[in-house]
């Protein structure tokens, strides 16, 4: 199964890189092949409907149709496993 994810944060580099590494590894361990890109939050509207999932580390005010999860639990470590499992569920549909 191949899925595409956009990881987004305020700068498009810092926290989204940490989150991307953990999510991609978890997906791989669960049999999901992931292609991904990193972006800034403001780019999400132009990427809406072009990927399977948005994983963000900042608040998103814009209404989007692509499924979106806030990855703060991966940054803090509180609720990380639950969030990683939710991401797997969303990608498997």
TrEMBL record:
InterPro entries: PTS_EIIB-like_sf, PTS_EIIB_2, PTS_EIIB_2/3. It comes from the Bacteria. GO terms for molecular function: protein-N(PI)-phosphohistidine-sugar phosphotransferase activity. Keywords: Sugar transport, Transferase, Transport. PROSITE patterns: PTS_EIIB_TYPE_2. Residues 3-93 form the PTS EIIB type-2 domain. Pfam families: PTS_IIB. Gene3D superfamilies: 3.40.50.2300. Signal peptide: none annotated. This is PTS sugar transporter subunit IIB. The lineage of its organism: Bacteria, Bacillati, Bacillota, Bacilli, Bacillales.
